[in-house]
Write a structure and sequence with these properties.
352 residues, alpha/beta, Alkaline Phosphatase, subunit A, seven-stranded mixed β-sheet, four-stranded antiparallel β-sheet, 13 strands, 22% strand
Length: 352
């Protein structure tokens, strides 16, 4: 049996905008899939959560340690393997260069995607602070321009937040909490001072770009943590899109680059996972015109071909998980689902 789990983070528009946005969408294939499918999961997050609903669901699917809403998914060491970095021992965290902006009397985290750091800029900033981490007894490793790794064995108790969950919010309640939070704050402050007058930031400011003025810690995991599957038996095949920076897609052990459903079907094993992650940055930035454009592109490139693959039997089962920052829903469909002719195609499920 060939199964594809497709994740569409922020495919659910905000409730207050859903009616207006969905009115602009003409997506007959997705409307058919959602109408004929069976909703197998629905959840809402009413309180404070350090990770978004789809991040928690993906962490479970990948077999990462379950932290529920108490801390960010333990994804650091799984990501390190993607960069061929050694993680034989210790506790490791994801460390991302970020921009914090002042809003009245508090600081707000800007979506790290907006920095668009170049490799050259990132390596210069990294080199400027690496000796500082050495002084504190922490190993700092470079993954790529936006993804670094910090070893801090004593900080395993820290409750951290994913940058996507914290973006656009007052950072105070999203900062790491725990026994060593003061140690983290001290190190974070020193990094900020080192970068304050750095040549990279001076050049970025002169060109009207956001400066890199802080770092974000999350995803802490022991070296033994790895990405596998939710039951330990089924090997997941991850499919990644060109240019994708989604950490959950990247942390799958056997990630296959794809650009079309045909490639997915040809490469599919028993169970594949595909994350269409372009909507996240647009939703966090409230760029809804572009959100509509990308959704329409997904209809042509992904949903219409997926509907055909189900009809032809090239795909036995398809699940579609849609979410926003406070809700998640999963719909499952197979070839037999498409025979439910009495269910009229509709995008209403996206308004849930």
């Amino acid at each position: 049996m060939t199964q594809l789990d497709l994740f569409l983070p922020f495919g659910l528009p905000p409730p207050e905008m859903a009616r207006d946005l969905l009115r602009e969408l003409k997506m007959p294939a997705l409307a058919m899939l959602l109408a004929r499918a069976t909703r197998i999961e629905h959840q809402t997050v009413d309180g404070f959560s350090r990770a978004l609903p789809h991040e928690i669901r993906l962490a479970h699917l990948l077999g990462l340690p379950d932290r529920s809403t108490e801390s960010s998914p333990a994804i650091a060491t799984a990501m390190m393997r993607r960069f061929d970095l050694s993680d034989a021992e210790g506790t490791w965290f994801m460390l991302q260069p970020v921009h914090l902006h002042i809003a009245h009397d508090h600081l707000v985290l800007t979506d790290p995607r907006q920095l668009a750091l170049s490799e050259e800029e990132a390596r210069a900033l990294f080199s400027a602070v690496q000796p500082l981490f050495d002084e504190y007894g922490h190993t700092l490793l470079f993954g790529d321009a936006s993804t670094w790794f910090l070893r801090a064995d004593a900080w395993g108790d820290l409750q951290t937040s994913t940058p996507d969950a914290a973006s656009g919010h007052n950072v105070d309640i999203w900062m790491p909490k725990g026994k060593h939070e003061r140690d983290w704050r001290r190190l974070q402050n020193e990094v900020q001072m080192h970068w304050h007058t750095h040549a990279v930031n001076e050049a970025r400011e002169m060109s009207g770009r956001k400066v890199v003025n802080s770092i974000w810690l999350w995803g802490g995991a022991p070296a033994s943590a790895s990405a596998g599957s939710d039951n330990g038996n089924t090997k997941l095949t991850g499919f990644t899109l060109p240019g994708s920076i989604d950490p959950y897609a990247m942390s799958l052990e056997h990630a296959v680059p794809v650009t079309s459903v045909d490639e997915v079907v040809r490469a599919a094993s028993r169970h594949g996972v595909l994350i269409l992650d372009e909507l996240t940055g647009l939703a966090l930035g409230n760029v809804w015109a572009e959100w509509l454009t990308v959704m329409k592109q997904y209809e042509t490139v992904w949903f219409a071909p997926l509907l055909t693959a189900l009809r032809n039997g090239d795909l036995d089962r398809l699940t579609i998980t849609v979410s926003h920052d406070h809700a998640l829903a999963t719909y499952a469909a197979g070839k037999s689902s498409l025979r439910k002719f009495w269910r009229k195609p509709s995008l209403v499920p996206l308004a849930a």
